[in-house]
Known about the structure:
- The chain is of the alpha+beta class.
- The protein is built from seven helices and nine strands, in the order βββββαααβαβαβαβα.
- Strand 7, helix 5 and strand 8 (153-154) form a beta-alpha-beta unit.
Amino acid sequence: MPRQNEPSERTCIVARTAKPVAELIRFVAAPDGLIVPDLRHRLPGRGVWLTADRTTVETAERRHLLEKALSGNVRVEPGLADRVEDLLLAAATGALALARKAGTVIGGFGKVEAALAAEPVVGLIHAREAAPDGVAKLQAAARRRFGDGGLPVIRCFGGEQLDLAFGRTNVIHAALLAGVASDNVLARVGAFVRYCGGGRPDGADARSFDALPELNDLSAGTVGTL
């Protein structure tokens, strides 16, 4: 969100069109001249803006548009699109850890199954490596209560990210319960999914992405809801 008195829109230097800042990523030059992403829009200095999807970042890197826009003794190290993806995933993982501390996320197959029957669940999480039978059982439980398409499904986390967020090992399934912290998880995951969906063809890597309901237009990854 823009700060008070700041513009609510900025121009993407690739698309050359104005967009809401929530749909963009800001880049600035660090003191050593390295161009870095400023996901929270807080770093000092003049910034330039890119649409928050992988294709746009790759295009800007390939055409050296960030260096041209910022000018001076600045540089972009190779692999910028990958670093942005890693930062967005880290932000989503951090939001999940905060939700756990706030008590709005639970982990473990049995606890998730029980929550789907009675708790105010607002999202279902499966690790990327989750076994199909476990996923299918929880999906069936979710359908019985919420119907088809009624619950966001998140599959962008690997077991390592879930273990980190929960502070323990072997977390495969989790559920988000209603609350501000869970809303933040959904927002962070949404940003990550949109970024990856912008330029990753089906099957391009081991990650799969089940969309949130409002992200059904994604063309990449595994798109769908319960």
